[in-house]
Amino acid sequence: MVPGMMCDERIFSPQIEVLSQNLEVTIADISNFSSVRELASDVLKKAPKNFSLLGHSMGGIVAMEIYSQAPDRIEKLILMDTNPKAELDEVKLKREPQIREVNKGKLLEVMRDEMKPNYLTESENKRSVLNVCMDMALTLGPHVFINQSRALQSRLDQQNTIQSIKIPVLILCGSEDKLCPVERHEMMHNMITDSDLKIINNAGHMPTLEQPRETTEVIKEWLMR
Question: Does residue 116 register a pLDDT over 70?
């Protein structure tokens, strides 16, 4: 499992609890390098010879690069709330003031004001999920924020990669995801020969925590079949 930007294993806590009863579950670390290529290479160095791979958000971007580097090692692939395209120039530019603020010690403010409010749909557990997201970000800290921001800025377009995928793929996203909308996932579904598309209702960018039971069941059923 590869978590998204400024997330750790807590983003997958409900899924880990269930899946680890039948599978060996490992959480990748994508905090130590400032390029997607290096992050993917580092994950591969630490991973088993063959494995199934799940990537959420930025973790999905890294997962696509992992497949690009070592397609023969991946047995199944799950791409969640993610984006195969390179970063738009306006988004690259928007990251620069965020990085400057984080360098001034304002990580909390950047996460609170500019990023996390866009992640979730309105629900009764929105506040508790936001608190988990903020705790993960503050635990990881400014250095990881800057590394991951730079990695996202310089990432390659992976559309050719996903068109070449020959293994089973599950594409999953929240119905209200504003960062990586449903249309982007439908596009990926149409580009991958052996793919299933699942939309989680009443969830935004974090369905693993917003709708944990349904998300876990979808992943478990697909992995086990």
Answer: no
